[in-house]
Design goal:
Shape: globular
Mean pLDDT: 88
Largest sheet: none
Number of strands: 0
Distance between the termini: 43 Å
Strand content: under 5%
Order of helices and strands: HHHHHHHH
Number of helices: 8
Structural class: mainly alpha
Radius of gyration: 17 Å
Length: 191
């Protein structure tokens, strides 16, 4: 079964690679790839926090992100609730990776990263990804509202899984991150 999934993802990646750059509004690839990059950065966040008093859950920081995307969403033609729903999935995916890595490192202390990244240097990268994600969320609104969105999202996520060489933990997190890609019926535009 895993071989079929990998084969499907490879074929999907090849198909996505043939899309012209101007197809951004109809393709979910860039949005999914940005979500995958955000999933990947969770490794650095986990390494920065592991063994420190900094908790995985950071409600104040999370609320700052939600408030920021909700405020910027209408300028991009997005409903604030849709933007917040999408970013809630990004944050939950990030925490899924952190918890998974914490468990792995607790079970295998030799795998704990030797150096601790500076969270203050990671946050601007996350902020840039968030800005890019929000812009792409707006650019893909027609595709995200389309009836075919779930199928296209599945293809894009499978391709991103292969392109980013994700292990099971990161693939699960990407699934979480992309779970809110497709706009719920009757949503999407500014209200």
């Amino acid at each position: 079964m895993r071989v079929l999934a990998v084969l499907f993802a490879v074929v999907s990646a090849l198909l996505l690679a043939t899309l012209p750059a101007s197809a951004s509004g109809t393709s979910l690839w860039r949005l999914t790839d940005l979500a995958a990059q955000r999933v990947r950065i969770a490794d650095r966040v986990a390494a920065a926090k592991y063994g420190t008093p900094s908790p995985i859950d950071d409600p104040a920081r999370e609320q700052q992100i939600y408030d920021s995307v909700a405020a910027r969403a209408p300028q991009l033609g997005l409903a604030p609730a849709d933007a917040v729903r999408f970013f809630r999935a990004q944050i939950e995916a990030n925490k899924l990776v952190q918890r998974g890595l914490y468990a792995r490192w607790a079970a295998h202390p030799s795998e704990v990263p030797a150096t601790r990244p500076d969270l203050a240097q990671i946050r601007p990268v996350i902020d840039r990804l968030n800005t890019d994600l929000l812009s792409e969320l707006a650019a893909t609104l027609p595709a995200r509202k389309a009836r075919t969105c779930p199928a296209h999202q599945l293809v894009a996520a499978g391709a991103a899984d292969v392109v980013h060489h994700f292990d099971a933990l990161h693939a699960r997190a990407l699934g979480e991150a992309t779970s809110a890609t497709c706009a719920p019926p009757g949503s999407g535009g500014v209200r």
